[in-house]
Amino acid sequence: MIYFLFLILSGLLQGMMISLNGQLGNYYSMFGISFFVHGIAAVLLILYLKCKEKKKIRFRGVPAYVYLVGFMGIGMVTSSSWCTLAIGATAMTGLSVIGQMVSSAVVDHHGWFGIEKQKFNWKELPAYLLVLAGVWLVTTG
């Protein structure tokens, strides 16, 4: 149950973050916003690892594909900031959720990135279609 609460809180924060990133788009370039956001995150992570965990930062032994997450993050912040200015935070978030659901289902189904395989259950398809219908209603007014 605690996971559900944390995920709801995360979603609430993400909704606000998307709107704030969109507002930053009025003042900075999309790549400037991404650099700003990821720069702050990197500094906070390094401080945490150095102060709290007292761990040395290592890059060896980590699968190379894991570092793609940085490029994905830049793409996400850049595209969400740009799209939010054009279509609004609600529509951008809804469309993003559809993309997240599809990519997550593919990753789960194939067991990519060391995740335990979770075969796609076709009984879940109506839920995906309901989300799609809901986003369509929100985006078309």
From TrEMBL:
Keyword GTP-binding appears in the UniProt entry: no
What Pfam families would the database entry show? Answer: DMT_YdcZ
Quick one: a GO cellular component term? plasma membrane
Keyword match Membrane: yes
Entry keyword set: Membrane, Transmembrane, Transmembrane helix
What domain of life does the native source organism fall in? Answer: Bacteria
Q: Which InterPro entries match?
A: YdcZ
| Residues that span the membrane, as ranges | 27-49, 61-79, 85-108, 120-139
Which PANTHER family does this UniProt record tie to the protein?
Answer: INNER MEMBRANE PROTEIN YDCZ
Q: What is this protein called?
A: EamA-like transporter family protein
Lineage of the organism? Bacteria, Bacillati, Bacillota, Clostridia, Lachnospirales
